[in-house]
């Protein structure tokens, strides 16, 4: 059960007269059964939520109820502040400022210092060390288009650098593995597409609005697919690149080889992406087996060398 979802539901119920279970379920992308469990938890926390059935029915907080500031524990408030503060560093907006202000209003004065200390124990910085300077302004543009249901026009480069001009309806911002994407309905492809923000240029918000349509959740978890495609190869790495190698496998895949090297059972798929991972280790990595992977690495090295021999 997510505390941030419970708090969001409470805020919605305080702001709205009445709202249905299905509407809440769609809003938070969970099942109505989960919403009913959340409502039970909110009731157990001392906030009287009643439900009405029939047309126009739903959940509502009993009239004249004043929310008790003691309903949230120190851990609850610390977790909310940590999440909201980290998100507001990347996506700025009045709604986040207001949400932070509301959460802070629940903090008793005598606990403020302790809660601030706990909230600062984990700091999430979504900004890359170096990166595309357009990310922040583009996020703001996309967020505005999402809120106002306005079309976006832009140029989009595929992984080979080919550019096309697109117009799309924005539906969702997605942060996956430190990269920002947005889900939109592309008018050129007549289908939903997940656009990577770093591949976008000349992003413009249009005056034209659109009627939102039902949209699918983007497929973001490829764990099972990757596991089915991956094989294990044996590489020998210098200890100086061990930290980077641990981004792709766990320490149990490492065995010492002398004082400064490791033999690693490395997950691998035979495509350009994985070959480039091996090349990113430079001369601190050697593929030992299987032989055909080693041979392909050598062929690619000769192709690279040929570029500089001309």
TrEMBL record:
UniProt keyword list: Transcription, Transcription regulation
Lineage: superkingdom: Bacteria
GO-annotated molecular function: DNA-binding transcription factor activity
Keyword hit for Transcription: yes
Annotated ranges, domain HTH deoR-type: 2-57
Protein name: Transcriptional regulator
């Amino acid at each position: 059960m997510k505390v941030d979802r419970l708090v969001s539901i409470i805020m919605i119920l305080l702001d709205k007269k009445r709202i249905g279970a299905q509407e809440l379920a769609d809003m938070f992308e969970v099942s109505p059964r989960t919403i009913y469990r959340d409502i039970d938890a909110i009731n157990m926390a001392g906030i009287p939520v009643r439900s009405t059935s029939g047309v126009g029915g739903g959940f509502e907080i009993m009239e004249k109820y004043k929310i008790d500031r003691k309903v949230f524990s120190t851990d609850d408030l610390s977790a909310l502040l940590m999440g909201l503060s980290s998100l507001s560093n990347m996506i700025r907006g009045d709604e986040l400022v207001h949400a932070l202000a509301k959460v802070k209003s629940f903090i008793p004065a005598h606990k403020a210092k302790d809660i601030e200390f706990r909230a600062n124990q984990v700091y999430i910085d979504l900004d890359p060390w170096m990166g595309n300077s357009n990310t922040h302004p583009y996020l703001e543009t996309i967020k505005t288009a999402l809120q106002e249901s306005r079309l976006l026009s832009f140029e989009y480069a595929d992984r080979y650098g080919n550019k096309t001009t697109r117009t799309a309806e924005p539906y969702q911002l997605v942060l996956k593995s430190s990269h920002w994407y947005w889900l939109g309905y592309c008018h050129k492809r007549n289908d939903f597409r997940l656009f990577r923000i770093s591949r976008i240029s000349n992003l413009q918000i249009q005056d034209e609005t659109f009627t939102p349509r039902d949209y699918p959740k983007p497929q973001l978890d490829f764990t099972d697919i990757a596991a089915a495609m991956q094989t294990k190869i044996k590489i020998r790495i210098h200890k100086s690149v061990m930290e980077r190698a641990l981004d792709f496998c766990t320490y149990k895949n490492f065995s010492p080889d002398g004082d400064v090297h490791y033999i690693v059972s490395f997950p691998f798929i035979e495509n350009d992406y994985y070959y480039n991972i091996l090349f990113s280790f430079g001369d601190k990595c050697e593929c030992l087996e299987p032989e055909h992977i080693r041979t392909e690495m050598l062929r690619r090295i000769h192709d690279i060398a040929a570029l500089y021999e001309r």
